[in-house]
Write a structure and sequence with these properties.
alpha/beta; Protein-Tyrosine Phosphatase, Chain A; six-stranded mixed β-sheet; globular
């Protein structure tokens, strides 16, 4: 047998083995839990999920799944999860439960037309029901679902706004509210021409990713504060000083980021104010300061972050 004649059967055998050993797609689990009613007048809190609101029978908004959240989604019959948050989703865990993850992050200032079409096509083409989430499930996911329902002609402006109110979208996020008021019905040809790659993980910029990390650390610090500045029972692994130290570290790291410096002196000044507040709280925790001192320092940190968000993110 010549080398060529030997190689072709060998390649065929290798491909056959590879295909036979590749993991088969996991079938979706049968629905065992009811989904919240689409006309519910308040968001639902479920195991591992918060602020869950139905916009249509096929499309829901809510928080990032945590703990048993993915299992809860699977048990409610969801087939596709769309994250509009910057944090990297738990793709493999969702796939093991028979669900597909799509990652299409958006900001707090609204959604550009390209991303609107990408989101709308994902919801149009992928198996439902579909769960769209950001971090808390109040703002970006609600704006994204409003844009999707308007793009696909599923809800009118007032209906979309009414569901955003149920989700708890803050009035200050004018760009997100514009998703309901300024999104037109998408042209079918434009939707068909939009990419259907539907990435499971989207690589964020340094600024976006670090801001996501800061948000998580700040949420952990708030939980620590509620637990009288100790590790909360539901997160016994949290170290209070470490969480605040992470915030200070990320803010220091951002000072040298090219994207941050391009935003100008005012943004950098406000960033440094937040950094100083985080460092002050960290020192107070290390010094075992009195609870009222810690509360004041925490209030200053949260306030400095909010001031920067109002100016530059909202």
């Amino acid at each position: 047998m010549t080398i060529r004649n030997f190689t072709l059967p060998l390649l065929g055998w290798i491909l056959a083995v590879a295909c036979s050993t590749a993991p088969a797609p996991v079938a979706p689990r049968p629905q065992t839990l009811p989904r919240p009613a689409v006309d519910a007048s308040a968001p639902a809190d479920l195991p591992g999920l918060h602020n869950v609101v139905g916009y249509t029978p096929n499309l829901y908004s809510g928080s990032q799944p945590e703990g048993p959240g993915l299992e809860t989604l699977a048990d409610m019959g969801f087939k596709t999860i769309v994250s509009v948050d910057g944090a990297q989703p738990a793709v493999e865990s969702a796939e093991a439960l028979g669900m597909r993850y799509v990652h299409l992050p958006i900001g707090y200032d609204g959604i550009d037309e390209t991303r609107k079409l990408e989101l709308a096509r994902a919801v149009r083409d992928l198996p439902g029901p579909i769960y769209v989430h950001c971090h808390h499930g109040k703002h970006r996911s609600a704006g994204a679902v409003a844009a999707i329902t308007r793009s696909l002609g599923l809800l009118d402006e007032e209906q979309a706004k009414a569901r955003m109110k149920i989700s708890g979208t803050a009035p200050d996020y004018k760009g997100l509210w514009a998703c309901a008021s300024e999104t037109a019905l998408a042209d079918k040809a434009a939707l068909d021409a939009t990419s259907n790659a539907f990435p499971s993980r989207f690589k964020a910029t340094g600024l976006v990713q670090l801001m996501v990390d800061i948000d998580f650390a700040l949420d952990n610090t708030k939980a620590v504060e509620k637990a009288a500045w100790s590790a909360p029972a539901e997160h016994p692994d949290l170290v209070p000083t470490a969480e605040v130290g992470r915030i200070a570290h990320y803010l220091r790291e951002l000072e040298d980021d090219a994207e941050v410096r391009a935003k100008g002196a005012e943004f950098l000044t406000m960033l440094r104010a937040s950094r100083d507040a985080a460092e002050k709280l960290e020192k107070a925790l290390l010094d075992k300061a009195a609870p009222d001192v810690l509360a004041a320092d925490m209030k200053k940190l949260v306030g400095s972050c909010k001031s920067c968000h109002v100016k530059f993110r909202d």
